[in-house]
Amino acid sequence: MKEIINNIQEKFKISEVTEQRENQYFISVEKKDTIQLVTYLKDIEKFTNFILLTAVDWIEKGQFQLTYMLNHPSKKLDIGVRTFIERENATMDSAHHLWEHVATFQRELKEMFGIDFPGSPRVDEPFLLEGWDNIPPMRRDFDTKKYSEETYFPRPGRSTNDPAEHMKKKLYPNE
Amino acid sequence: MKIVYVLLGLFIIINYGLLQAGVLRRITARVGKRIGVPFYQPYIDLIKNYAIRSQFSHGVMFYLGPVFRLSGGVGIFLFMPLIFGNEIFSNYSMAGDLILIMYFMFIGMLGMALGAGEGGHPYSIIGITRGLSQFTTVEVPFTLAVISIAIQYQTLSITEIVAAQQGGIMHWTLMTNPLATGAAMLSFLGMMMYAPFNVVNAPQENPLGPPTEFHGTFLGMLQTNRVILGVMEAILFMNLFFGGATNWGILFIKAFLIYFYPVFVGAVFPRYRIDQSIRWFLYLPTALGILAIIFI
Amino acid sequence: MAEEKNYKIIQPDNSEENKFLKPENYKREVTAPDGNTFIVDPLNDYFCDAKPQPHAPNTIKVVEKFLNWARSQSIWVLGFGTGCGSIEIYPLMTPRFDAYRFGVQQRPTPRQSNLMIISGYLSVKTLKRAIRSYEQMQSPKFVMALGSCTINGGMYWDSYNTINRLDHYMPVDVYVAGCMPRPEALLAGFMELKKRIREGKGEGANQYAENFDWYKANQKKIIKDWNMPDYNW
Ligand code: SF4
Question: How many whole angstroms separate alpha carbon A153 and alpha carbon C132?
Fold first, then answer.
């Protein structure tokens, strides 16, 4: 694994390398290098199994973080490629030409986060949310509780307890 | 006067068939270590289906499909002698013969095909295609067997065939012409559509086969027909191969045993795909049927 | 087959109603072989859109009682599974629980079934299919809802995509509480349902037909791309 990381570092500008486990690393690159790096990992280093593509909303920084997880089937290695993209008008290059099923992940990201992947097949078709006309629900500025209360006729009489408070009251009633 | 007796016979047959269906379902449930439905469940299902309040139709053929199917079942009943030597329960058997009965067996299927086709559900069309192709191959060994016994007894009238078999078990076609009996009994498995050959209806699965769109009264008619048809086919085989019956008791016992045999096979064997079942019918049963004609 | 197009699609106006209309449901102008042109509106022309009618019970009390008894003894369940609960329905038919004893049988098509079991949370996408299946069932029909998700939203109560209360979208006969209710609880639910049917309270289909506008408004509020006629019998 070390060797592979060194190889990558020679060829690409890696800003950060995190060792999660012996056989699992995360590396961060710039947006413009990402697809190149993924292609390199697939074709040269033989990380041929694409596991997932996911996004995290860093609303404070105004950025989305994308993670491409790849897996090396015979050596049992995992590598995650991280990159940051702008939150405003988020677009990313599509990787569906490498693995077909990437298109499905991209379709989901388009729907849930509003990240566009121009050229990806069927990216504009609804995936789970048919006829959604609000901001994409996985963005952190979308208030799902408020939306649910406004839309879905909540049944009155529901009470919730904060677990920490509740246990405190239960276990140490005198404090 | 005849018509009253015929209706009485039909009434007995329907009740017998319903009870038998319930008992057999219980038996199959026992094979699967379940308790199973109450034995009167087919009655309740029938009542409930006739009592469904809303109906809709897909068109004229959709109405006529179950009617055709039911007329197939009742048609077989009308021309079948139930009890040998009994004027009351021999129905109109003097007016029709084996060929007519075989024709009635097929017309129900055809009517169903038209009705299910008009229903427009893709699954019913798949089901009816499977049904027709399987039934065509089922008919091949059965027809060969029928030709064989027609040559043997020099007649096509069922009453005369039964008459020729009287006088003890050694006179039954089962003994005098075992090859034809074998071929016909194997094709009987396909006619009753129990397990190895029930991919047509595919019960308990998403594609329900031909009756997918039928509901309420339509379904009730189909169920009634299924009951009549099942019993009548068993009685047909009883008349042709097992010496007929001289009273109701013998008829019930023989029909039950004959009917029980595909159920028993079905409880044990897994299901064939449609191409496999077609191939199966065209191998062993057809070969037996041809041999039956050669060595008559 | 290279087919010459004999129709022209009419673009719908940009009103709120047409926002989610699918292209296959656009109105189109068709030219018949004899040269006449006419307009086809798939939503209205290809489907029957008659509203559901309430069906009065049999006026003779004894008959109706008998029929209700028959209905309660022969419950055909539509095999439609949503959420976590569909996995709890299959054991019902196994030797251990054996729901056949009570006349409960499974049926794969909505046309022939009487009981729809909503087995857990319903996302909006599934709700659309569930309503469609429900409307295709023939009256009298019953609905049984499993789990807290159908009662008040359960653990998905604040989700953006799952409904909170099923009874706003279709009339529910029996709720079975739990997360997820075990098959024993489901059997108890069946008993309760039978009691209701025998008492003549299982009139959900009529309730749906009578309050059709209210139900439809609720449904349409969350299912924005309806793309179907209002009622699908
Ligand atoms: S009530 Fe619980 S088990 Fe049932 S669907 Fe909801 S979360 Fe799943």
Answer: 21
Interface of B with C in 67-126 (CB under 8 A): 123
CB A95 within 8 A of CB A121: no
Q: What is the CATH number of the domain that holds C90?
A: 3.40.50.12280
Q: Where are the domains of chain A?
A: 2-171
Question: Token pair for residue C212?
Answer: 């059709």
Q: Are residues C40 and C115 in the same domain?
A: no
Residue for token pair 């098959």:
C183
Alpha-carbon gap, residue B58 to B207, rounded angstroms: 19
For residue C197, the surrounding DSSP H or E stretch is helix C183-198
Do residues C68 and C35 share a domain?
Answer: no
* CB of C121 shorter than 6 A to ligand 1: yes
| pTM of the model as a whole | 0.86
Establish if C113 belongs to a structural domain.
Answer: yes
Listing DSSP states for C133-191 in one string gives HHHHSPSS-EEEEEHHHHHH-GGGTT-SSB-S-GGGTS--SEEE-SSSPPHHHHHHHHH
Distance to chain B for C77, nearest Cα, Å: 11
User: For chain A, what percent of residues have pLDDT higher than 90?
Assistant: 49
Alpha carbon of C83 to ligand 1 centroid (Å): 7
User: 3-state secondary structure string, C152-166?
Assistant: HCHHHCCCCCECCCH
Q: Are residues C201 and C113 in the same domain?
A: yes
Q: C131 near C169, Cβ under 8 Å?
A: yes
Mean pLDDT of C160-189: 90
Asked if the model's pLDDT at residue B159 lies above 90, the reply is: no
Query: Do C75 and C145 belong to one domain?
Result: yes
Task: Examine the domain organization and report whether C24 and C128 are in the same domain.
Answer: no
Rounded to a whole number, what is the distance in Å from the CA of A125 to chain C's nearest CA? 11
Helical ranges in chain B per DSSP H: 2-31, 41-50, 60-78, 98-119, 122-153, 158-164, 173-176, 178-192, 216-241, 248-268, 274-294
Does residue C172 share a domain with residue C120?
A: yes
Among the atoms of ligand 1, which is closest to the Cα of residue C178?
1
pLDDT band at C48 (very low <50, low <70, confident <90, very high): low
As a CATH number, domain A2-171 is 3.30.460.80
Domain extent for C31: 7-45
What digits encode the pLDDT tens for the residues B9-52? 899 999 999 999 899 889 888 888 888 889 999 999 999 999 88
Q: Which two tokens stand for residue B181?
A: 């009996």
Q: Looking at the predicted structure, is the pLDDT value of residue C1 above 50? A: no
What kind and span of H or E run contains C7?
strand C7-9
Residue C227 within a domain: no
In this structure, is residue C56 part of a structural domain? no
Is pLDDT of B119 > 80?
Answer: no
The predicted model gives B264-275 an average pLDDT of 85
Tokens of B15: 């009740």
- Measured over the CA atoms of residue B72, residue B75, residue B81 and residue B86, the dihedral's sign is positive
- Within 10 A of A50 (CB to CB), how many other CB atoms are there? 20
Question: How many separate domains does chain B show?
Answer: 1
Cβ contact C19:C11 at 8 Å: no
Retrieve residue A141's tokens: 């500025």
ipTM of the complex: 0.84
φ/ψ region of B154 (left if φ > 0, alpha if ψ in -120 to 50, else beta) reads left
With CB atoms and an 8 Å threshold, state whether A128 touches C160.
no
Range of the domain at B110: 2-294
Task: Tell whether C170 and C199 lie within a shared domain.
Answer: yes
Number of domains composing chain C: 2
